[in-house]
Amino acid sequence: MISVEEQNRCFVPVRRILNNNDLNLFKESEAYRLIDSFICDLNESIQDKPISAEVKLSPSIEYILLILKRVEEILNLNPPVENKGSRFGNPAFESFYDQVECECPTLHAAFGLEENAIGEAGKYFYESFGNRKRIDYGSGHELNFMTWLLSLRRLDILTKEDYPAIVLRIFVQYINLMRLIQTTYFLEPAGSHGVWGLDDFHFLPFLFGSSQLVHHKYLRPKHVRDPEILEMCANDYMYLGYVRFINELKPNVSLRFHSPMIDDISSVKTWAKVNEGMIKMYRAEVLSKLPIMQHYLFGYLIPAVPSMSAAPQEGEDAEISHIHSTYGDCCGIKIPSAIAASKTGWRRLPFD
């Protein structure tokens, strides 16, 4: 266990990647290695394991599942407000977010950590449900959730023996919870690449999901085009489950039309190649993209390189030193999600 003295060195994490030089420093840093190794180790731990596989549930795993259950209860306590059928984010998300942030210290108290350590890990936790101001969500918020788990690993709350359960129980529950949050509050995609990305919101279900299928006796990447296979196997395999979910949001168009990248990947011969490609893509499209990583936070547990830019001052305009996506939609330009469109109907954006 990290000592009390070390826990007291923790602090609420802050932004340090403000430009390409900072990003390059990050890619050669201890923080990058910690994140990358954690994702790869989790990926390996669930190879060939369906969601229904028996995994060890330690007391820490069971308590984290209760934490996520409490977040779902907070969601139910903060229903969406009337928003005239808009496909954009519902303002009630702000009250949901505020309550999660308010309860964060209490939710973490059972871990027996010092106050500073709770503050550092807790920041990653409530930042993993989306951005309060923009009411959006993307792969950067998903990365915050993984960093929260990595922080608990660094604090010895989680161990390597917990890795299969981290993915097959905790991460699966988190994805299901995020679907509820996205559906309830119509979170906008943060920095969506539209149909040219894997998904509006998530990346890791495809990475972990392909690992689950690496040596499957029957299922092949091409089977994502088969609705019957998806229906039979989606509940046990994250990759197939997420493709089914996307198909349900866009039922009247083909996979080739609404998700061409996923359709292209389906022509790969083996799941091992898909998984290998997903790891490379995650490094390139998430961990190496400035519009995403400029929002990443560094503290004591996940340290910044000392020569990175100083953290923006509290209250500083978020747009200062803020790099927008080359797609022009990382923030500021409202992009309704497919989830919102499926609930309110597809219609021309100028009338929203």
From TrEMBL:
InterPro entries: Phstyr_phstse_ac, PTPA_C_lid, PTPA_sf. One of its GO terms (cellular component) is cytoplasm. It is an enzyme of class 5 (isomerase). It is found in: Cytoplasm. GO terms for molecular function: peptidyl-prolyl cis-trans isomerase activity; protein tyrosine phosphatase activator activity. It catalyses: [protein]-peptidylproline (omega=180) = [protein]-peptidylproline (omega=0). Keywords: Cytoplasm, Isomerase, Rotamase. Coiled coil: none annotated. One of its GO terms (biological process) is mitotic spindle organization. Its EC number is 5.2.1.8. SUPFAM superfamilies: PTPA-like (SSF140984). It comes from the Eukaryota. Pfam families: PTPA. PPIases accelerate the folding of proteins. It catalyzes the cis-trans isomerization of proline imidic peptide bonds in oligopeptides. Belongs to the PTPA-type PPIase family. This is Serine/threonine-protein phosphatase 2A activator. It comes from Schizosaccharomyces cryophilus (strain OY26 / ATCC MYA-4695 / CBS 11777 / NBRC 106824 / NRRL Y48691) (Fission yeast).
